[in-house]
Each structure stands twice: as structure tokens, then as C-alpha cells.
Specification:
mainly alpha; 13 helices; monooxygenase; Phenol_Hydrox; 330 residues
Length: 330
């Protein structure tokens, strides 16, 4: 008996889900599209929230930004759960190797006491600011609209939680538990930290999720990370013998360079929608920019002394140039 085998190609009746076919046409969709587009709950919400009956449960009018389609705020990194966790896992391996290298070779103990104290004084209290950023991005995710916008905010929240943990580990490595206690006391009582603490706490009281996105992710992060991890750690401490601190904070520098592309894309897309959006964004950025610069100045002074004014001014110029590229005129 002879059996002949042959291959038969069966054309699928459809290539993707109906809601993606309506948006992109009937063609195979990417995993990012499947995990991001048109999955925002928008129907069959029978009751308004009891804590604010004037708004719907998922309400686009909660923000002053107006968009015809909130899914235009896509993530240029195209992160969905799988790609996000894989990317962060690789970065975590690098961070763990850096911590292991510094600890195994005693590089923290080899640093001059002056440099180690400066690193602890400037960096460890920032774990409280990172926790505030975690809370703020969780709020944006909860009250924002459109998964393409809210999904990366949740990833951003978890990243900030990781940054807070890395700063805690840095404090334990360079100064043991006393460093964490001192950092908490500085955050709550030291005069240098009270402007930033007030900025973080005031931002946590915002109700407009897009204004919170601007205040936290664009303005505060846009000034804090270049000043602290670029100007202080890379340009000031490392050349003087604190390269171990740069290794322990490499994740923060890499993370800021990566995430700013997404933040800029969101602001640029919202600004391009209408003159009204551009005016609102300019108002928010101008107001929070002034507050953030004033809040960060005394912290930069802890490391740079009299050169702090110059460093903050330089970063403000760079920040303004960054904002101009998004189409917002301050």
C-alpha cells in the first residue's frame, strides 16, 4: 500500500481580532497592537463612581487635554508585558553584576569618605522621590484613558519602584542601615529636601492625570535625572574617584535615556492635536518647570556648592530645547 502525503494551505477566515481589523485592516497584527489597542473599558459601565458621581468611571473629560483618539499616544518602544519584562530582566542582570562587582572588590570602602558621604547625602533620600513617582504613575494608569497611554505608565510606576530599591541597596552597601535612617530624616526634616518633598506631595494631590504626567515624567524627571545622575554622579563624583557610584546608578541613567523618548512622544502627539492642547501643555510645563528648578537647586548645592546655580541653569536651557522639539512653546 502506498500513502501519499501532501501539504494543504488553509487560508484563515480572518487575520486578527475584529477591533484591530476595524482600526488597521484585516491583516496580521503585532503583539503590541493586540495588547494595547481598543481594549480600554468604555461600555456597560452602569454606575458612576461613588467617590465622584460627576464623572464616568473611565472619563476622558477628567483632563484638560482633548484628543479625538486616545490611542494616538502609542509607545514608540512598543512595550507590552512580554517585551517590557524581557528588557528589564536584561537590565537587572547588568545592575546585579555591577552591585556584585562593587561589593566583591570593596570599591565602596575604597572611596574617600568625603565622596561616599556626598553620594549618600544626595542619592539615598531620592528613594522617597522615586516612591512618589511610583504612586503618581499608578494614578495616571488608574485615571488616564486608552491603554496605549496608561499601559506604559504602569511600567513606569514599577520602574520607579525598582529605582527606589536600587537607591536603598546603594545606601546599605555604602553606609549600612544608618544611611537609610539618615536619608529618611533628611527627607522629612532637612531644609534642603523640603522643596522637593513639597513638589512630590503637591503632585500627588493633582486630579488631572495628564497634568500629573507632565509634572512628574516630563518636568521633574527631565531635570532631576540629568542633574543628579549626569552632572553630579558622572561629571563630579566619578572623576574624583567615585566611579563605583556611577556603576551602582547605571540603571537610572540608561532608564532615563530610554523612557524620555516615550515621554517626549506623548507630549509631542498631544501638542500636535490642537492649539488648545499646546496652550494647556505650555501652561503646565511653565508652572511646574519653575517649581522643579527651585526644588532641585538646594539638592544640587549639596554636591556642587556655589556651582549649583550654573548647573541648574544649564539644565534648564537643555530642558527648554527638549520641550521645543515637542512643538510646545514656553
Amino acid at each position: 500500500m502506498q500513502i501519499d502525503l501532501r501539504t494543504v494551505t488553509i487560508d484563515p477566515q480572518r487575520n486578527t481580532f475584529d477591533h484591530l481589523a476595524r482600526r488597521f485592516g484585516d491583516k496580521p497584527a503585532s503583539r503590541y497592537q493586540e495588547g494595547s489597542y481598543d481594549i480600554q473599558a468604555a461600555e456597560n459601565l452602569h454606575y458612576r463612581p461613588t467617590w465622584d458621581p460627576e464623572q464616568a468611571l473611565y472619563d476622558t473629560s477628567i483632563t484638560r487635554i482633548v484628543l479625538q483618539d486616545w490611542y494616538v499616544l502609542k509607545d514608540p518602544r512598543q512595550y507590552y508585558y512580554s517585551t517590557y519584562t524581557l528588557a528589564r530582566a536584561r537590565q537587572q542582570e547588568t545592575a546585579e553584576a555591577n552591585f556584585g562587582f562593587v561589593e566583591s572588590r570593596g570599591l565602596g570602602d575604597a572611596m574617600a569618605e568625603e565622596l561616599r558621604d556626598a553620594a549618600l547625602r544626595v542619592l539615598v533620600p531620592l528613594r522617597h522621590a522615586a516612591w512618589g513617582a511610583n504612586q503618581n504613575n499608578a494614578f495616571i494608569c488608574g485615571y488616564g484613558y486608552g491603554t496605549a497611554f496608561t499601559q506604559p505608565c504602569m511600567y513606569h510606576a514599577m520602574d520607579n519602584l525598582g529605582i527606589a530599591q536600587y537607591l536603598s541597596r546603594l545606601g546599605l552597601l555604602l553606609g549600612d542601615t544608618e544611611a537609610l535612617d539618615a536619608a529618611k530624616q533628611a527627607w522629612t526634616e532637612d531644609r534642603s529636601w523640603q522643596p522637593l518633598r513639597r513638589y512630590v506631595e503637591d503632585s500627588m494631590a493633582l486630579r488631572d492625570p495628564f497634568e500629573l504626567f507632565v509634572a512628574q515624567n516630563l518636568v521633574l524627571d527631565g531635570l532631576l535625572y540629568p542633574l543628579v545622575y549626569g552632572r553630579i554622579v558622572d561629571d563630579e563624583l566619578s572623576p574624583r574617584g567615585a566611579s563605583a557610584v556611577a556603576m551602582l546608578t547605571q540603571f537610572m541613567s540608561d532608564w532615563f535615556d530610554e523612557t524620555r523618548k516615550w515621554v517626549d512622544s506623548v507630549v509631542k502627539t498631544a501638542a500636535a492635536e490642537s492649539d488648545g492642547n499646546r496652550a494647556v501643555l505650555a501652561e503646565w510645563i511653565h508652572d511646574w518647570r519653575e517649581r522643579a528648578a527651585a526644588a532641585l537647586l538646594p539638592i544640587v548645592e549639596l554636591a556642587l556648592g556655589a556651582r549649583a546655580d550654573e548647573a541648574v541653569a544649564e539644565q534648564l536651557t537643555a530642558f527648554d530645547a527638549r520641550v521645543a522639539k515637542t512643538g510646545v512653546t514656553l
